[in-house]
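F.,

This is the one I mentioned.
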């Protein structure tokens, strides 16, 4: 007597149509399907999850849960989270490890989160070419993070060759950032 709980970020019905997922397996595991929107579409869950992960990892480190200033929560809530809940968990785990006194500051956040908020008008300024370049860079970065930096899968998803993806990654200077990674909100 066994129950199987599985999760995926793929559309398994599409995968079956393209013969990348076995149809018989799909119908065996597809008894009860629950679809959950990505974290970027559930902004209201970010603070709750951040506090949960802060308590969890503070407890593992034997420290008290840190205060999370409202400005830090705002930055977390407005970040796109291409890596979804796992990326948020890793970020909070990293913050707990690097802020042992429980003082989380904006400066302690990962550069990719801070950089997206330094100039609120950055996405709206510049000519068409500059804006398209920023858009393409972010699209490629998010796809790389979604596919755990697997270049073949990312290239296939973006409709590029693997070599074309490598060229764009070099051109845009995209680098992988490794994360090590009762909650109180402070204002």
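My design for it:
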């Amino acid at each position: 007597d066994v129950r199987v709980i599985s999760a995926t970020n793929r559309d398994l019905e599409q995968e079956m149509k393209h013969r990348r997922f076995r149809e018989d397996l799909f119908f065996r595991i597809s008894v009860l399907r629950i679809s959950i929107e990505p974290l970027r579409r559930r902004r209201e869950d970010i603070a709750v999850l951040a506090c949960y992960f802060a308590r969890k990892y503070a407890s593992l480190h034997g420290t008290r849960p840190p205060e999370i200033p409202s400005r830090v929560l705002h930055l977390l809530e407005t970040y796109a989270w291409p890596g979804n809940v796992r990326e948020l968990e890793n970020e909070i785990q990293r913050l707990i490890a690097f802020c042992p006194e429980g003082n989380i500051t904006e400066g302690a956040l990962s550069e990719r989160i801070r950089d997206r908020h330094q100039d609120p008008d950055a996405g709206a300024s510049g000519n068409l070419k500059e804006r398209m370049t920023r858009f393409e860079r972010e699209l490629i970065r998010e796809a790389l993070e979604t596919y755990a930096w697997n270049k073949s899968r990312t290239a296939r998803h973006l409709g590029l060759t693997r070599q074309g993806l490598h060229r764009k990654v070099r051109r845009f200077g995209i680098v992988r950032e490794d994360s090590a990674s009762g909650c109180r909100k402070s204002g």
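Strands lie at 67-69, 184-186.

Talk soon.
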